[in-house]
Amino acid sequence: MLTLATTTPGEPELFASLQGEGPSIGRPSTFVRLSRCNLACQWCDTAYTWRFEGDNRPHRDDAAFERNTNQLTMGEEAVAQAIAALPPDRLVITGGEPLLQGAALARMVEALNRIRPGMHIEIETNGTVAPHAALDPMVHQFNVSPKLAHSGNPADLALIPERLAAWAADPRAVFKFVVAEPGDLAEVLSLQETFAIPGDRLFLMPEGRSGDVLRTRSIWLAEFCSQNGLRFTDRLHIHLWGDTRGT
C-alpha cells in the first residue's frame, strides 16, 4: 500500500499538470503526492503531508492538519492504473518524502511499466534517504532538494554527507536548492565545492508561495546564477495557479 496526500477528503492528490520546477519545467506531467516526511521545513508549502495534529515541529503557519482528511492509502496497482489513465508520458513522484515508501513505490512503478511501458519517472526527494534497491533502476531522474539552514532542520538530519556524495556521483540526480535570502548563497556554494556538484546539475529556486515574492527574489537570484555558472528555476505552478493543491 502507498500512503498518499489528498486534494479533498477521500481524493488522492494524483493529477495531470505542468512540471513547475527544475530541468523538466513546463513539461506535461502526471503527479502523485505521497504523505509523510522525515524533515520539517518551517516554510514548507505541503505541510499537510506531515504536520498532523499532535506534531509540534515548527512551521511558520503553525497549522495542524487532521490526518484522516489529509492522508489516505491506496494499493500499488490502483495507483498505477490511475496514473496510466492520464495523458502525460512523464510521472513525477513527490511528497512529503517519497523515498520513505521505496518498497511500495517499486511495486507501483513495476505495475505501471506493465500497464503503460515507457513512462519517464522522476522522483522529488530531500536527499536524506537512499532509493530502495528495487526502485532505483526504474527511475530516470532524481530531483534532489537538500535543505539549507534557513529551513529550520538540523544539519545532521538534513545534510547527510554520504547521501549527498552519492547523489553528486549519480548523473540522474539534479540538485535544487531553495533560497530565501542572499545569505543562503554561501551555504550553497560551500556544499557545491564539498561534494563537487557540477554547475549544470545545480538549480537555485526562490522560496515563496506567491508570484510577487517569487518575482522579487528571482531578480537577485537569477543574477547570482548567471555569475556563478548555476541554473535558475522558477515556480511556474505558483504563477499560474497560486499555492493550491492538485496543481
TrEMBL record:
Keywords: 4Fe-4S, Iron, Iron-sulfur, Lyase, Magnesium, Metal-binding, Queuosine biosynthesis, S-adenosyl-L-methionine. Pathway: Purine metabolism; 7-cyano-7-deazaguanine biosynthesis. It catalyses: 6-carboxy-5,6,7,8-tetrahydropterin + H(+) = 7-carboxy-7-carbaguanine + NH4(+). Binds 1 [4Fe-4S] cluster. The cluster is coordinated with 3 cysteines and an exchangeable S-adenosyl-L-methionine. Binds 1 S-adenosyl-L-methionine per subunit. [4Fe-4S] cluster binds at residues 37, 41, 44. Homodimer. Belongs to the radical SAM superfamily. 7-carboxy-7-deazaguanine synthase family. This is 7-carboxy-7-deazaguanine synthase. The gene is queE.
